[in-house]
Amino acid sequence: MTTNTRETPQGDMVRFGLFTVVILAMPIWLMPFGAAYPDLMQKFAIYGLFAIGFNILFGLTGYLSFGHAAFLGVGSYTAVWSFKLLGMNPIPALLLAVVMSGAFAWLIGFISLRRTGIYFSILTLAFAQMSYNLAYSVLTPITNGETGLRVLNSDPRVLDHMMGAGEVDGPLVTNLFGMEMSGLPGFYFCAVWLLIGMYISFRIFRSPFGLMLRAIKTNQTRLNYTGISTRPYAQTAFVISGMYAGLAGALLCVTDPLAGAERMQWTASGEVVLMTILGGAGTLLGPMLGAGIIKYSENIFSAFNEQALHEIFAFLPDGIEAAVVSVAGLFVGEGWHLTLGLLFMLIVIFLPGGVIEGGQRISAAVTRLRGGGSGGSSTQPQPAE
To answer: Where are its TM segments located (predicted)?
Structure first.
């Protein structure tokens, strides 16, 4: 009988090591897929971090928030104000963004967590939309409204001037002690924060605190009857999740120093929900996979216009080629959302556990086939599906 190491600290470290190698080697293995350019890899890392943080709340406690875009926006605005006041070094911006988004998450969580289920979801959605409307109109002196907040040469940038880097010819770009956070350096900077966020997620999932969050998801009423107050645990998970979102929002501004109110829209909140469910809510690696699938679809599938489709199907006879292009055009280019919607529908119907569940089913099927081909029935217990 073999020991299952998947739930052991050693198994977690092996998986985290493999995850680290995969992330750092993205410029190599993404090349055949046409996705090895820095801007897209930065989005993989940033939105992967956003989804990992959301999974700590939704995947572990079962609280479905439709307002996490508010924390993404707070992190973005805080980062840009840090650039404007202090300088273009991203470290102070990230730290301030995490603190501010955490404080904002505590306030929203303190109110919203008084309700559960759909009422909690509606409350978080309402707070996010309120934040969006405030940023778009009422708080224009702070957010610059629909134009968006950006860094200008006339801004104080106190630390930059102290270091003799106040006067810049050309556009202002974030830099880490002289290294510009654009291109591959920008990707690896985001990747480091992604790895830190994933490591913290591993530790939370395997900690007593993580077990308590799972218990809340399983049966919160029973916990309350035993005398355990579940709200402090849910509040802590909500704040941690909000801090992840704020960090992701700040990283978006590190790679492009601009913050806009559109990051607070309900569509951004829905996107992270989609990422988490698509990859596998409650799993460690699922949200990152979901973020990668959605951002790949958004940036690659949407690039297939009619001309590109004609080039792909040029080997077909003219009449058939035109028919194939007209049908395929419904699912790519401007219609890439249709492809994503169909994929999401198939995942929800046939793989409620997301892409991770699909991988587990394939692994279990391969194991059964190997056991059946060894000349007798296997006496080892099979993993439940």
So the answer is: 16-37, 44-71, 91-111, 118-139, 186-205, 232-252, 272-291, 312-332, 338-356
Give residue for tokens 């919160």: 220
Sign, CA dihedral 14-296-359-51, equals: positive
- Per-residue pLDDT 10s for the chain (385 aa) are 333 445 677 788 899 999 999 999 999 999 998 888 999 999 999 999 999 999 999 999 999 999 999 999 999 999 999 999 999 999 999 999 999 999 999 999 999 999 989 999 999 999 999 999 999 989 999 999 888 999 988 888 998 888 776 666 667 889 898 888 989 999 999 999 999 999 999 999 999 999 999 999 998 888 888 888 899 999 999 999 999 999 999 999 999 999 999 999 888 899 999 999 999 999 999 999 999 999 998 888 888 888 888 888 888 888 888 888 888 888 888 888 888 888 888 888 888 888 998 888 888 888 888 876 554 444 444 444 3
Where are the domains positioned within the chain?
A: 12-264
Count Cα neighbours of 90 within 13 Å in the Cβ-side half-sphere: 28
For domain 12-264, give its CATH number from 2.60.40, 1.10.3470, 3.40.1350, 1.10.150.
Answer: 1.10.3470
